[in-house]
Amino acid sequence: MFTHPVLTPFAGLARKPRPRASVWCDRRYTFQTCQHSNPRQTNDRITMKFRILGRTGVQVSPLCFGTMSFGGDADEKASAAMYRACRDTGINFYDTANQYSSGRSEQILGELIQGHREELVLATKCANPTGRDINARGLSRRHITRAAEDSLKRLKTDRVEVFYLHQPDPATPLEESMRALEDLVRAGKILYPAISNHSAWQTQQAIDIQKAHGWAALQAVQPMYNLVKRQAEVEILPMAEANGLSVLPYSPAAGGVLSGKYSQQEKPTIGRLYSNPRYKDRYGEAWVHETAANFAAFCKNRGVHPVSMAVAWVGAHPAVTAPVIGARSVEQLQASLDSLKIDMTPALRAELSALSRTPPPATDRLEEVIQPK
Protein backbone atom coordinates (compact mmCIF):
# COMPACT_ATOMS: atom_id res chain seq x y z
CA MET A 1 0.00 0.00 0.00
CA PHE A 2 1.28 3.44 -0.84
CA THR A 3 1.60 5.98 1.94
CA HIS A 4 1.59 9.22 0.04
CA PRO A 5 -0.19 11.96 2.01
CA VAL A 6 -3.65 13.10 1.02
CA LEU A 7 -3.27 16.36 -0.89
CA THR A 8 -5.54 19.33 -1.17
CA PRO A 9 -6.09 20.69 -4.71
CA PHE A 10 -3.59 23.48 -4.17
CA ALA A 11 -0.41 23.01 -2.17
CA GLY A 12 -0.70 24.48 1.31
CA LEU A 13 -4.34 25.44 0.92
CA ALA A 14 -7.15 23.42 2.42
CA ARG A 15 -10.57 24.20 1.02
CA LYS A 16 -14.12 22.98 1.30
CA PRO A 17 -15.34 21.18 -1.86
CA ARG A 18 -17.79 23.19 -3.94
CA PRO A 19 -21.19 21.46 -4.03
CA ARG A 20 -22.17 20.20 -7.46
CA ALA A 21 -24.51 22.36 -9.46
CA SER A 22 -28.07 21.37 -8.70
CA VAL A 23 -31.55 21.76 -10.02
CA TRP A 24 -32.92 24.09 -7.37
CA CYS A 25 -31.35 27.14 -5.77
CA ASP A 26 -31.02 25.25 -2.48
CA ARG A 27 -28.79 22.76 -4.33
CA ARG A 28 -31.17 19.81 -4.01
CA TYR A 29 -31.24 17.15 -6.69
CA THR A 30 -34.22 15.88 -8.62
CA PHE A 31 -34.90 12.20 -8.16
CA GLN A 32 -36.14 9.47 -10.45
CA THR A 33 -36.62 5.90 -9.35
CA CYS A 34 -35.73 3.37 -12.03
CA GLN A 35 -35.74 -0.41 -12.30
CA HIS A 36 -32.98 -2.52 -13.83
CA SER A 37 -33.77 -4.50 -16.95
CA ASN A 38 -31.81 -7.47 -15.59
CA PRO A 39 -34.40 -10.07 -14.45
CA ARG A 40 -32.22 -11.02 -11.51
CA GLN A 41 -32.60 -7.52 -10.15
CA THR A 42 -36.24 -6.74 -10.86
CA ASN A 43 -36.82 -5.92 -7.20
CA ASP A 44 -33.69 -3.79 -6.96
CA ARG A 45 -34.58 -0.16 -7.62
CA ILE A 46 -32.19 2.74 -8.03
CA THR A 47 -32.84 6.34 -7.09
CA MET A 48 -31.37 8.46 -9.86
CA LYS A 49 -29.99 11.83 -8.78
CA PHE A 50 -29.85 14.10 -11.79
CA ARG A 51 -27.17 16.78 -11.99
CA ILE A 52 -26.76 20.02 -13.89
CA LEU A 53 -24.54 20.12 -16.96
CA GLY A 54 -22.09 22.98 -16.42
CA ARG A 55 -23.99 26.25 -16.14
CA THR A 56 -26.67 25.26 -18.68
CA GLY A 57 -29.63 24.27 -16.51
CA VAL A 58 -29.81 20.99 -18.45
CA GLN A 59 -30.29 17.95 -16.20
CA VAL A 60 -28.20 14.84 -16.87
CA SER A 61 -27.97 11.44 -15.24
CA PRO A 62 -25.01 10.74 -12.90
CA LEU A 63 -23.71 8.24 -15.44
CA CYS A 64 -23.04 8.95 -19.12
CA PHE A 65 -23.05 5.94 -21.43
CA GLY A 66 -20.14 5.97 -23.86
CA THR A 67 -20.80 4.16 -27.13
CA MET A 68 -17.23 3.65 -28.33
CA SER A 69 -17.88 -0.10 -28.60
CA PHE A 70 -20.86 0.34 -30.95
CA GLY A 71 -20.02 -1.09 -34.37
CA GLY A 72 -16.71 -2.46 -33.10
CA ASP A 73 -16.54 -4.69 -30.03
CA ALA A 74 -20.35 -4.65 -29.92
CA ASP A 75 -22.46 -5.47 -32.97
CA GLU A 76 -25.88 -3.90 -33.57
CA LYS A 77 -27.73 -6.43 -31.41
CA ALA A 78 -25.36 -6.05 -28.45
CA SER A 79 -25.35 -2.26 -28.85
CA ALA A 80 -29.16 -2.15 -28.78
CA ALA A 81 -29.28 -4.35 -25.67
CA MET A 82 -26.85 -2.09 -23.80
CA TYR A 83 -28.73 1.00 -24.89
CA ARG A 84 -32.01 -0.47 -23.57
CA ALA A 85 -30.35 -1.37 -20.25
CA CYS A 86 -29.13 2.21 -19.85
CA ARG A 87 -32.54 3.64 -20.74
CA ASP A 88 -34.23 1.27 -18.27
CA THR A 89 -31.82 2.45 -15.57
CA GLY A 90 -32.75 6.08 -16.25
CA ILE A 91 -29.63 7.26 -18.08
CA ASN A 92 -30.40 10.17 -20.41
CA PHE A 93 -26.81 11.13 -21.34
CA TYR A 94 -25.02 9.41 -24.27
CA ASP A 95 -21.51 9.99 -25.62
CA THR A 96 -19.96 9.08 -28.96
CA ALA A 97 -17.40 10.44 -31.46
CA ASN A 98 -17.03 10.61 -35.20
CA GLN A 99 -13.90 8.46 -35.00
CA TYR A 100 -15.48 5.53 -33.15
CA SER A 101 -15.70 2.56 -35.53
CA SER A 102 -15.21 4.99 -38.43
CA GLY A 103 -18.55 6.66 -37.77
CA ARG A 104 -20.50 3.46 -37.23
CA SER A 105 -20.96 4.23 -33.52
CA GLU A 106 -22.81 7.44 -34.38
CA GLN A 107 -24.92 5.62 -36.98
CA ILE A 108 -26.03 2.90 -34.57
CA LEU A 109 -26.76 5.41 -31.81
CA GLY A 110 -28.68 7.54 -34.32
CA GLU A 111 -30.95 4.59 -35.12
CA LEU A 112 -31.52 3.74 -31.47
CA ILE A 113 -32.58 7.23 -30.37
CA GLN A 114 -35.38 7.57 -32.91
CA GLY A 115 -38.77 8.20 -31.32
CA HIS A 116 -37.44 9.67 -28.09
CA ARG A 117 -34.62 12.01 -29.17
CA GLU A 118 -36.06 14.88 -27.11
CA GLU A 119 -35.58 12.88 -23.90
CA LEU A 120 -31.82 12.60 -24.40
CA VAL A 121 -28.65 14.63 -24.07
CA LEU A 122 -26.18 13.70 -26.81
CA ALA A 123 -22.45 14.36 -26.98
CA THR A 124 -20.04 13.75 -29.84
CA LYS A 125 -16.50 14.80 -30.75
CA CYS A 126 -14.17 15.72 -33.58
CA ALA A 127 -10.42 16.11 -34.22
CA ASN A 128 -9.14 12.66 -35.16
CA PRO A 129 -8.77 11.65 -38.83
CA THR A 130 -12.01 10.80 -40.61
CA GLY A 131 -10.56 10.17 -44.07
CA ARG A 132 -7.40 10.06 -46.15
CA ASP A 133 -7.47 13.74 -47.09
CA ILE A 134 -4.84 15.79 -45.27
CA ASN A 135 -7.50 18.24 -44.01
CA ALA A 136 -9.94 15.57 -42.79
CA ARG A 137 -8.58 15.93 -39.27
CA GLY A 138 -7.56 18.49 -36.68
CA LEU A 139 -9.34 21.52 -35.26
CA SER A 140 -9.40 23.95 -38.18
CA ARG A 141 -12.66 25.78 -38.74
CA ARG A 142 -12.91 23.94 -42.04
CA HIS A 143 -12.72 20.50 -40.47
CA ILE A 144 -14.79 21.24 -37.34
CA THR A 145 -17.67 22.55 -39.46
CA ARG A 146 -17.64 19.57 -41.81
CA ALA A 147 -17.21 17.08 -38.97
CA ALA A 148 -20.19 18.48 -37.06
CA GLU A 149 -22.44 18.36 -40.11
CA ASP A 150 -21.42 14.77 -40.88
CA SER A 151 -22.03 13.72 -37.27
CA LEU A 152 -25.54 15.18 -37.33
CA LYS A 153 -26.34 13.16 -40.45
CA ARG A 154 -25.11 9.92 -38.89
CA LEU A 155 -26.97 10.64 -35.64
CA LYS A 156 -30.14 11.58 -37.55
CA THR A 157 -30.67 14.68 -35.45
CA ASP A 158 -30.70 18.42 -36.03
CA ARG A 159 -28.28 19.22 -33.20
CA VAL A 160 -26.16 17.74 -30.42
CA GLU A 161 -26.19 19.16 -26.93
CA VAL A 162 -22.46 18.72 -26.26
CA PHE A 163 -19.74 18.95 -28.91
CA TYR A 164 -16.16 18.19 -27.87
CA LEU A 165 -12.87 19.05 -29.45
CA HIS A 166 -11.46 15.56 -28.94
CA GLN A 167 -7.80 16.47 -28.50
CA PRO A 168 -5.47 19.47 -28.98
CA ASP A 169 -4.31 20.41 -32.46
CA PRO A 170 -0.90 22.14 -32.31
CA ALA A 171 -1.24 23.22 -35.96
CA THR A 172 -4.36 25.35 -35.34
CA PRO A 173 -4.60 28.44 -33.13
CA LEU A 174 -7.08 27.87 -30.32
CA GLU A 175 -8.93 31.07 -31.25
CA GLU A 176 -9.68 29.60 -34.69
CA SER A 177 -11.20 26.49 -33.09
CA MET A 178 -13.24 28.50 -30.60
CA ARG A 179 -14.60 30.62 -33.47
CA ALA A 180 -15.70 27.44 -35.25
CA LEU A 181 -17.60 26.32 -32.15
CA GLU A 182 -19.24 29.74 -31.90
CA ASP A 183 -20.37 29.52 -35.53
CA LEU A 184 -21.93 26.11 -34.85
CA VAL A 185 -23.71 27.39 -31.74
CA ARG A 186 -25.14 30.33 -33.67
CA ALA A 187 -26.27 27.94 -36.42
CA GLY A 188 -28.06 25.78 -33.82
CA LYS A 189 -26.07 22.68 -34.75
CA ILE A 190 -24.43 22.37 -31.35
CA LEU A 191 -25.66 23.81 -28.07
CA TYR A 192 -22.72 23.63 -25.68
CA PRO A 193 -19.01 23.69 -26.59
CA ALA A 194 -16.71 21.30 -24.74
CA ILE A 195 -13.18 19.92 -24.91
CA SER A 196 -11.52 16.61 -24.14
CA ASN A 197 -7.93 15.63 -23.38
CA HIS A 198 -6.77 19.24 -23.04
CA SER A 199 -4.58 20.47 -20.21
CA ALA A 200 -5.88 22.89 -17.59
CA TRP A 201 -3.97 25.83 -19.09
CA GLN A 202 -5.30 25.10 -22.57
CA THR A 203 -8.84 24.90 -21.23
CA GLN A 204 -8.46 28.16 -19.34
CA GLN A 205 -7.03 29.80 -22.45
CA ALA A 206 -10.07 28.67 -24.43
CA ILE A 207 -12.39 30.08 -21.76
CA ASP A 208 -10.55 33.40 -21.79
CA ILE A 209 -10.76 33.63 -25.60
CA GLN A 210 -14.48 32.98 -25.53
CA LYS A 211 -15.01 35.54 -22.80
CA ALA A 212 -12.99 38.19 -24.63
CA HIS A 213 -15.10 37.78 -27.78
CA GLY A 214 -18.44 37.25 -26.06
CA TRP A 215 -18.73 33.75 -27.53
CA ALA A 216 -20.64 30.78 -26.12
CA ALA A 217 -18.63 29.38 -23.24
CA LEU A 218 -17.29 25.90 -22.64
CA GLN A 219 -19.59 23.88 -20.43
CA ALA A 220 -17.79 20.56 -20.03
CA VAL A 221 -14.40 18.86 -20.08
CA GLN A 222 -13.64 15.16 -20.53
CA PRO A 223 -10.33 14.06 -19.02
CA MET A 224 -9.07 10.58 -18.25
CA TYR A 225 -9.55 9.93 -14.54
CA ASN A 226 -9.52 6.79 -12.41
CA LEU A 227 -7.91 5.35 -9.31
CA VAL A 228 -4.57 4.73 -11.07
CA LYS A 229 -4.63 7.84 -13.30
CA ARG A 230 -5.19 10.78 -10.94
CA GLN A 231 -3.20 13.58 -12.57
CA ALA A 232 -6.47 15.41 -13.28
CA GLU A 233 -6.75 16.09 -9.54
CA VAL A 234 -3.80 18.46 -9.64
CA GLU A 235 -5.11 21.19 -11.95
CA ILE A 236 -7.88 20.04 -14.31
CA LEU A 237 -10.51 19.28 -11.67
CA PRO A 238 -9.85 22.43 -9.57
CA MET A 239 -9.87 24.53 -12.77
CA ALA A 240 -13.19 23.01 -13.80
CA GLU A 241 -14.72 23.70 -10.39
CA ALA A 242 -13.49 27.29 -10.45
CA ASN A 243 -15.12 27.86 -13.86
CA GLY A 244 -18.33 25.95 -13.21
CA LEU A 245 -17.56 23.32 -15.86
CA SER A 246 -18.94 19.79 -15.79
CA VAL A 247 -16.28 17.09 -15.62
CA LEU A 248 -17.19 13.89 -17.47
CA PRO A 249 -14.22 11.53 -17.00
CA TYR A 250 -13.61 8.57 -19.27
CA SER A 251 -11.96 5.22 -18.38
CA PRO A 252 -13.21 5.08 -14.77
CA ALA A 253 -12.20 1.40 -14.65
CA ALA A 254 -8.80 2.12 -16.26
CA GLY A 255 -9.48 0.18 -19.43
CA GLY A 256 -10.18 -2.98 -17.41
CA VAL A 257 -7.18 -2.74 -15.08
CA LEU A 258 -9.55 -2.16 -12.15
CA SER A 259 -12.02 -4.85 -13.21
CA GLY A 260 -10.56 -7.55 -10.95
CA LYS A 261 -10.08 -9.86 -13.94
CA TYR A 262 -6.29 -9.83 -13.85
CA SER A 263 -3.91 -10.81 -11.09
CA GLN A 264 -0.67 -8.94 -10.53
CA GLN A 265 1.24 -11.62 -12.48
CA GLU A 266 -1.42 -12.44 -15.09
CA LYS A 267 -1.22 -10.74 -18.48
CA PRO A 268 -4.51 -9.90 -20.27
CA THR A 269 -5.38 -12.06 -23.27
CA ILE A 270 -8.53 -10.18 -24.35
CA GLY A 271 -9.77 -6.58 -24.34
CA ARG A 272 -8.01 -3.29 -24.93
CA LEU A 273 -5.21 -4.09 -22.48
CA TYR A 274 -4.29 -6.94 -24.82
CA SER A 275 -5.11 -5.55 -28.27
CA ASN A 276 -4.32 -1.83 -27.97
CA PRO A 277 -0.62 -0.85 -27.64
CA ARG A 278 -1.57 2.54 -26.17
CA TYR A 279 -3.38 0.86 -23.27
CA LYS A 280 -0.43 -1.46 -22.70
CA ASP A 281 1.84 1.55 -22.38
CA ARG A 282 -0.64 3.61 -20.38
CA TYR A 283 -1.16 0.98 -17.70
CA GLY A 284 2.06 -1.02 -18.02
CA GLU A 285 3.90 0.10 -14.87
CA ALA A 286 4.24 -2.45 -12.07
CA TRP A 287 2.78 -0.16 -9.39
CA VAL A 288 -0.44 0.16 -11.42
CA HIS A 289 -1.03 -3.58 -11.30
CA GLU A 290 -0.04 -3.72 -7.63
CA THR A 291 -2.65 -1.07 -6.92
CA ALA A 292 -5.23 -2.93 -9.00
CA ALA A 293 -4.59 -6.16 -7.09
CA ASN A 294 -4.97 -4.41 -3.73
CA PHE A 295 -8.11 -2.70 -4.98
CA ALA A 296 -9.62 -6.00 -6.14
CA ALA A 297 -8.92 -7.58 -2.75
CA PHE A 298 -10.50 -4.58 -1.01
CA CYS A 299 -13.66 -4.97 -3.10
CA LYS A 300 -13.80 -8.74 -2.63
CA ASN A 301 -13.68 -8.35 1.16
CA ARG A 302 -16.72 -6.06 0.93
CA GLY A 303 -18.64 -8.11 -1.59
CA VAL A 304 -18.66 -5.37 -4.24
CA HIS A 305 -17.73 -5.74 -7.90
CA PRO A 306 -14.47 -3.81 -8.55
CA VAL A 307 -15.91 -1.99 -11.57
CA SER A 308 -18.90 -0.80 -9.52
CA MET A 309 -16.54 0.54 -6.86
CA ALA A 310 -14.18 2.12 -9.41
CA VAL A 311 -16.98 4.00 -11.16
CA ALA A 312 -18.49 5.11 -7.84
CA TRP A 313 -15.08 6.39 -6.67
CA VAL A 314 -14.76 8.59 -9.78
CA GLY A 315 -18.34 9.82 -9.57
CA ALA A 316 -17.97 10.86 -5.93
CA HIS A 317 -15.32 13.51 -6.61
CA PRO A 318 -17.03 16.89 -6.01
CA ALA A 319 -15.93 18.21 -9.42
CA VAL A 320 -17.35 15.25 -11.36
CA THR A 321 -20.79 15.43 -12.94
CA ALA A 322 -20.92 11.96 -14.50
CA PRO A 323 -18.34 9.27 -15.29
CA VAL A 324 -18.48 7.98 -18.87
CA ILE A 325 -19.07 4.23 -18.72
CA GLY A 326 -18.83 1.70 -21.53
CA ALA A 327 -18.93 -2.02 -22.22
CA ARG A 328 -19.01 -4.75 -24.86
CA SER A 329 -22.15 -6.46 -23.54
CA VAL A 330 -25.05 -6.02 -21.11
CA GLU A 331 -23.40 -8.48 -18.74
CA GLN A 332 -20.24 -6.39 -18.64
CA LEU A 333 -22.21 -3.15 -18.43
CA GLN A 334 -24.19 -4.20 -15.36
CA ALA A 335 -21.29 -3.67 -12.96
CA SER A 336 -20.99 -0.02 -14.05
CA LEU A 337 -24.74 0.51 -13.65
CA ASP A 338 -24.54 -1.02 -10.17
CA SER A 339 -22.17 1.78 -9.13
CA LEU A 340 -25.32 3.83 -8.48
CA LYS A 341 -26.11 1.55 -5.54
CA ILE A 342 -22.87 2.33 -3.69
CA ASP A 343 -22.89 4.90 -0.92
CA MET A 344 -19.45 6.38 -1.56
CA THR A 345 -18.91 8.24 1.70
CA PRO A 346 -15.90 10.55 2.12
CA ALA A 347 -14.37 7.98 4.48
CA LEU A 348 -14.75 5.13 1.98
CA ARG A 349 -13.39 7.26 -0.85
CA ALA A 350 -10.36 8.24 1.25
CA GLU A 351 -9.72 4.59 2.10
CA LEU A 352 -9.76 3.68 -1.58
CA SER A 353 -7.60 6.65 -2.53
CA ALA A 354 -4.95 5.48 -0.07
CA LEU A 355 -4.49 2.35 -2.21
CA SER A 356 -2.95 4.36 -5.06
CA ARG A 357 -0.43 7.09 -5.65
CA THR A 358 -1.66 10.59 -4.98
CA PRO A 359 -0.09 12.95 -7.54
CA PRO A 360 2.06 15.76 -6.16
CA PRO A 361 0.78 19.34 -6.39
CA ALA A 362 1.49 21.46 -9.45
CA THR A 363 4.38 23.15 -7.65
CA ASP A 364 5.89 19.72 -6.87
CA ARG A 365 6.63 21.01 -3.35
CA LEU A 366 5.16 17.97 -1.65
CA GLU A 367 6.78 18.78 1.68
CA GLU A 368 4.71 21.96 2.04
CA VAL A 369 1.31 20.38 1.68
CA ILE A 370 -0.85 20.94 4.77
CA GLN A 371 -2.36 17.71 6.01
CA PRO A 372 -6.08 17.73 6.87
CA LYS A 373 -6.78 17.35 10.59
Keywords:
alpha/beta, 3-stranded antiparallel β-sheet, disordered N terminus, 373 residues, 12 helices
Helix-strand layout with pairing:
Elements: E1 30-35, E2 45-52, E3 59-60, E4 64-66, H1 76-89, E5 93-95, H2 104-112, E6 121-126, H3 141-155, E7 160-165, H4 174-186, E8 190-196, H5 200-213, E9 220-222, H6 236-243, E10 246-247, H7 272-275, H8 277-282, H9 286-301, H10 306-315, E11 324-325, H11 330-337, H12 346-353
Parallel strand pairs: 4-5, 4-11, 5-6, 6-7, 7-8, 8-9, 9-10
Antiparallel strand pairs: 1-2, 2-3
Helix pairs in contact: 1-11, 2-3, 3-4, 4-5
Shape: globular
Sheet of most strands: 8 strands, parallel
Order of neighbouring strands in the sheet with most strands: 10-9-8-7-6-5-4-11
What percent of residues adopt helix (DSSP H or I)? Answer: 25-40%
Number of contiguous helices: 12
The stretches of 5 or more residues where confidence is low (pLDDT under 50) are 1-19, 21-29, 35-43
> What is the element string, with H for helices and E for strands?
EEEEHEHEHEHEHEHEHHHHEHH
Structural class: alpha/beta
* Number of β-strand runs: 11
Strand content: 5-15%
Any idea what the radius of gyration is?
A: 20 Å
Chain-averaged pLDDT: 87
**What is the terminal-to-terminal distance?**
21 Å
